[in-house]
Write a structure and sequence with these properties.
Strand order of the largest sheet: 9-8-7-10-11-12
Low-confidence stretches: 339-347
Number of helices: 13
CATH superfamily of the largest domain: Glycogen Phosphorylase B
CATH class of the largest domain: Alpha Beta
Number of strands: 12
Radius of gyration: 21 Å
Strand content: 5-15%
CATH topology of the largest domain: Rossmann fold
CATH architecture of the largest domain: 3-Layer(aba) Sandwich
Mean pLDDT: 92
Order of helices and strands: EEHEHEHHEHEHEHEHEHEHEHEHH
Shape: globular
Helix content: 25-40%
């Protein structure tokens, strides 16, 4: 970075597998709350005590808590709220009460923010249609970090990713309904009828038992592996023959950008939001309809049969850490000159 900025990472609870990845120069502040909603008093006290110049929050509940805490603190901290998923999908897939509260809380409280950020154009458009708020900036996630390519060269402790083994398809993400790995398993079963290939899915989540049962039902235990969460998925991506995104919805699927940057061929569902933007409408990888296992299998087979293409800087230049840091610094200073991406949209 061109200048030094002091950064606090403020968490409702300072736990989780990613905590060890926080750089030592970042101070971790544990609010000691059991849930995000319960962190409001502690966050307000933190803002009043520390008087930070800016506060960046993400995810629906955290955004609302951040905005309320800033009001209670009574200090002119610039607040930037970020939307990382497709709001209409989050709303429709939540329970009935939460599904109604998500758009309502956005309409009522997000205008309190100094800036509203969406991680993709698709997310911004969806947010505006849902809330009627048109003052939205698009800033992509900082996907390509300084050590990204170095970490991709690290060794991988999996016997399938060694020379002489059949090609490996890779999926990465939480084992949840949103990621729809069940559809990937169905597509893989069809692919397996036509050629020798294996499937690795990295991640952990509540769908593990259901996916394991599906693998057994398909009779593919010898060809599919679920290693769980891994600290360095980039090394797996680098060695995979193909990366597959099977999600029903997203915001900006960073794993797709990571795979592209490593010159790993990709196939993705054309879900809201992100894949269309990232893959330039299919220029950088095949897009298939959401939930269509036959189309997914066909795209996988076709891509596997093609020669691997060289990586293009164009595929990931907008997602580098420095590019995104500069964008957020301009937002926090109120100096970003780009106009809002959308007009007001009647609800």
């Amino acid at each position: 970075m061109a200048q030094q900025v002091n950064v606090d990472l403020v968490l409702a609870q300072a736990t989780g597998p990613y905590l060890s990845a926080v750089p030592p120069e970042v101070r971790v502040v544990d609010l000691g709350a059991k849930r995000v909603l319960g962190s409001l008093p502690a966050l307000a006290r933190y803002l009043k005590r520390e008087r930070p110049a800016g506060l960046i929050s993400a995810l629906d509940h955290a955004n609302v808590i951040a905005l309320w805490a800033n009001r209670l603190a009574g200090h002119p901290t610039r607040v930037v709220v970020a939307i990382h998923n497709t709001p209409s999908q989050d709303s429709s897939n939540a329970n009935s009460l939460r599904g109604r509260l998500i758009p309502l809380s956005m309409r009522l409280f997000y205008p309190w923010a100094d800036s509203i950020v969406a991680v993709s154009k698709g997310v911004a458009e969806d947010f505006t249609k849902l809330t009627g708020i048109g003052q939205v900036e698009v800033v992509y996630n900082p996907v390509i970090l300084p050590d990204f390519f170095t970490r991709a060269e690290e060794p991988v402790d999996h016997p399938w990713l060694t020379p002489g083994e059949p090609p490996v398809l890779l999926g990465v993400g939480r084992l949840t309904r949103q990621k729809n790995f069940a559809n990937l398993l169905r597509a893989f079963a069809e692919v397996r009828k036509h050629r020798a290939v294996r499937l690795l899915i990295l991640g952990e989540g509540e769908e593990r038992l259901a996916l394991q049962a599906q693998i057994k039902e398909l009779g593919l235990e010898a060809d599919i592996s679920l290693p769980g969460f891994v600290q360095n998925p980039y090394a797996y991506m680098k060695r995979a023959a193909l990366f597959v995104l099977s999600s029903d919805w997203e915001g900006l699927p960073t794993v797709l950008i990571e795979a592209l940057a490593l010159a790993t061929p990709v196939v993705a569902t054309d879900c809201k939001s992100g894949p269309q933007e990232i893959l330039a409408g299919g220029r950088w990888g095949r897009l298939v309809p959401v939930g269509d296992s036959a189309a997914l299998a066909k795209a996988i087979l076709t891509t596997l049969a093609e020669p691997r293409k060289a990586v293009s800087l164009e595929t990931y230049a907008g997602y580098t850490q420095q590019t995104v840091v500069d964008e957020y610094l301009h937002l926090l200073r109120g100096t970003r000159v780009s106009p809002p991406v959308l007009e007001e949209h009647p609800v």
